[in-house]
Every structure is written in C-alpha cells, then in structure tokens.
C-alpha cells in the first residue's frame, strides 16, 4: 500500500511535467528462459571439422569450412567460386586456405598461378617455403631447355590425347572441327601412335603426318589422298603455331623430366603468359587434360585445383566444356575446384555463357568480396543471394566477405596468422592495404587463437 503523500506528490508532478516512467521490479531468470527474449542474430555454423577461415562477423564465433567434410551432408558438390574486386582479400584467402589444407596428410593442391611480379608468380614464396619448384611455363625459357608439357605424353590415354588435340585446335580456330578435318586429325594421330614407339611422339610428328598423309588412310574411306591432305591443312597450320610459331617451346617436345606429381603442392606459374592472348586458353586446355589423365587418381587423396583468373577458362566454350567434364569426373575422386574471378559479368556475359552457367551451378560454395552496387545486384541475381547480403556487399571492407555455402549465408572476417602473413602478402599488397593490416589487440588475439587451432589440427591430422 503506497503512502497517500507519495500518491499525491506523483499526481501533482504528472500534472506539471507529464507522466513519469513506470517503475519496474527486477526479474530473475535463467539463460534457457531468456533465449526466447534475446533471439540469435547469426545463422548456425558449418560444424567444427575442417580448416578455420576466420570469424563470423555478427556472432563473433569461429568460422570453419572444409568442402570434403561437408560434401554429401551440407554440400551437393565440393567446388568453390570466389568473387570480388582487386585489393579486397581474395588472394590472401586462397593462400591461407591452401596452407591450412596442406596441414592434413591426405591433401594435395594444384594451383594455376596467372599473376605475379618481379619475374615470378604470386605463389613463388609459398612454393619456396615448402621446398617446391614451380612449373614455370614461359615460351622464351622453353627454347632454352625450360619446362615442356607434351600433349602426346604416353601418360595420357590415346583417347585423352585426341580430345586434347581437338580442344587445342578448336580454341585456336574459334570454332569446332568439321567432320573432314576431324577425320584427318584422327588418322594422323593413330598413325603416329602406332609407328613411333622408341620415343615420346610429339606435335611435330602430327604436323608432318597431316602434311603427308599415308595412302592407307585415304583408301580406308575410299577418297583421294589429296582430299585427306586438304582436310588436314588447317589443322596442320594451327598445330604448327605450337611447333614453330609464337607459342613454340612449351608443348613441342617430350614432357620435362622431374615434374613431381606426388608433391603436396604443384604450382603452374603462368605469369609470363599474356593472359589476353590465345596462348592462355590453349595452355589451360593442355594443363587440364594433362592433370585429368596423370594427376587425379583413385587413391583416396583429397585434391584441390585452384585457378586464378578463371574467366580465361570459362570464357572459351571448348575449354569450359573440358573443365566441366573434369569437375564431374573429379567429384567422384575427391576433387575440389576453386575458381577465382573478379567479376561474374566476365563469365556470364562471355562467349561461353551456357558452359559458364553449368560450371557455376556446380559451385555449391560462393564467397563474395566487395563489389560496386550494380555488380553486386547482378551477382545476387545470378547466384540467388538474399537481399540483405546483396545490400551489404558494396559496404564490405577488405578481408570481409559474404559466404554462401549451399544456402547458409554468413558474413566472415578472414584471419591471418603471423606465420602466414609474410607468405601471403607481397610488398605491393602490404603498401596498398597497410592500414587494414595493422590489427588492433583484439584482432591479434583472434589471430593467435586461429594459429593455435591450426597447430592443434596439424597435430591430430591424419
């Protein structure tokens, strides 16, 4: 029962100054009951098995991702698409992800390194740290006993060799082979494989056979020998470019001895290749088939195939079809394909839009760094991102990205340990983003926690 004087005083005060705030008594409760009042603001994580990426921004909890652990449960496919403009952290994410995956004993990684400075690719430091020599493909160096990859290497099946030859020619010509040209190539390839047994057949042998076909090949189809020669002329001219033209040196000899396909990390350094020239898709085709027939094996290893500047692959219909087959085939043998692209419009508006859509559909994981608003909206439409994610993409700061793992969408801050930092950032990158790299005390503690977690996983790997 309230004091009458207090009641009178409150009434007079309310009349002069308005209604006073109601006094509420404190309530004691448990966290189990209070969770209905304070609702969660972040989606559930992806589990605690795999490699740590960083910290989920809204909840502050660790973000762990591994396509091999999630495949078949939360992921229909282990393939991954990374998008974003330069300077926002794509390269750092790729490198730390690979370094952390390699802590497990059953992992193997191939990287197509298309960027670099000072005459070497961006992955050169990491390769050196792991005691690995990158496979540096350079037309000039190849003439001086540099690295060669032979499309007719006996390690590749005869069917794979013929498919590779067709892809090389179709990429260079910009259209598919007609039946007559395809027949001339098939006949020349069969003859070379049957007659050259004392050494590795090379492209020069194919060119020579196309120019001078055997009479038996004409008789088999009941056509004149001059017709077979004419059918194979354009094919011979295209292959001659790899033998004696501006692309000579990389593919016109036996495969270089000493390429270690059992190394935990294999780096193809493509930084000396003009990424806008026809050499790049031709090179991608050769490397793709070569890996398909010599690297991917049913040995229970989990393999990661990371391709920078991946739009050079997807933008060519013939090469995109080849890699689409590689993805479908490799998924059964534990292959995770990681494609790194600056803008999705480079792919979906390119010459291989149909093939690009099929490859994108196989990428169940999508990581999107900062993009301009119009690009973010276009990306959201193609990938089916929720509206809130599309709206925040233009506002993301370096190192923070939207992760969409088969519909589980979260915002993640990538963390880099002190051990990884000198391997991940080049001098140029350090200069451009020095303010972002100066972490505060809280970030430093989080990085140390990530490093301790990585060391724990290494200790218990395998």
UniProtKB/TrEMBL annotation:
Organism: Streptomyces huasconensis
This protein's UniProt keywords: ATP-binding, Nucleotide-binding
One GO molecular-function entry: ATP binding
Listed InterPro entries: P-loop_NTPase, T4SS_component
Protein name (database record): ATP-binding protein
SUPFAM superfamilies: P-loop containing nucleoside triphosphate hydrolases
Pfam families in the cross-refs: AAA_10
Domain of life: Bacteria
Transmembrane domains' residue ranges: none
Keyword ATP-binding among record annotations: yes
């Amino acid at each position: 029962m309230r004091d009458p004087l207090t009641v009178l005083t409150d009434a007079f005060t309310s009349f002069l100054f308005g209604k006073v705030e109601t006094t509420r008594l404190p309530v004691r409760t448990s966290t189990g009951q209070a969770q209905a009042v304070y609702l969660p603001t972040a989606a559930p994580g992806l589990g605690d098995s795999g490699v740590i990426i960083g910290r989920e921004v809204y909840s502050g909890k660790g973000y762990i991702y591994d396509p091999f652990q999630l495949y078949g449960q939360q992921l229909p496919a282990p393939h991954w698409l990374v998008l974003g403009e330069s300077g926002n952290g794509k390269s750092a994410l790729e490198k730390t992800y690979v370094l952390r995956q390699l802590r497990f004993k059953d992992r193997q990684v191939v990287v197509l390194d298309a960027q670099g400075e000072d005459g070497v690719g961006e992955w050169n430091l990491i390769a050196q740290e792991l005691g690995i020599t990158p496979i540096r493909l350079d037309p000039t160096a190849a003439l001086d006993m540099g690295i060669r990859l032979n499309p007719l290497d006996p390690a590749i099946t005869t069917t794979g060799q013929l498919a590779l030859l067709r892809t090389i020619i179709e990429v260079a010509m910009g259209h598919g082979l007609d039946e007559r040209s395809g027949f001339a190539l098939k006949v020349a390839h069969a003859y070379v494989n049957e007659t050259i047994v004392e050494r590795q057949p090379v492209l020069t042998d194919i060119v020579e056979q196309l120019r001078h076909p055997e009479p038996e090949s004409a008789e088999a189809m009941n056509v004149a020998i001059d017709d077979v020669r004419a059918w194979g002329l354009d094919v011979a001219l295209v292959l001659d470019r790899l033998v004696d033209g501006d692309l000579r040196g990389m593919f016109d000899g036996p495969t270089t001895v000493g390429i270690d396909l059992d190394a935990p990390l294999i780096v193809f350094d493509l930084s000396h290749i003009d990424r806008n020239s026809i050499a790049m898709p031709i090179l991608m085709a050769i490397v793709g088939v070569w890996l398909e027939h010599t690297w991917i094996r049913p040995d229970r290893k989990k393999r990661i195939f990371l391709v920078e500047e991946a739009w050079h692959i997807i933008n060519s219909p013939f090469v995109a079809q080849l890699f689409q087959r590689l993805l479908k085939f490799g998924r059964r043998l534990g292959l995770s394909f990681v494609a790194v692209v600056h803008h999705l419009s480079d792919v979906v508006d390119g010459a291989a839009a149909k093939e690009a859509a099929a490859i994108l559909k196989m990428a169940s994981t999508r990581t999107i760094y900062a993009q301009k608003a119009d690009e973010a909206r276009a990306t959201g439409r193609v990938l089916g991102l929720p509206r809130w994610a599309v709206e925040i993409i233009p506002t993301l700061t370096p190192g923070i990205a939207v992760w969409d793992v088969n519909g589980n969408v979260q915002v993640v801050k990538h963390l880099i340990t002190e051990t990884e930092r000198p391997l991940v950032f080049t001098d140029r990158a350090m200069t451009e983003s020095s303010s972002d790299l100066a972490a505060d005390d809280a970030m430093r503690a989080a990085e140390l926690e990530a490093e301790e977690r990585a060391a724990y996983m290494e200790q218990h790997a395998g």
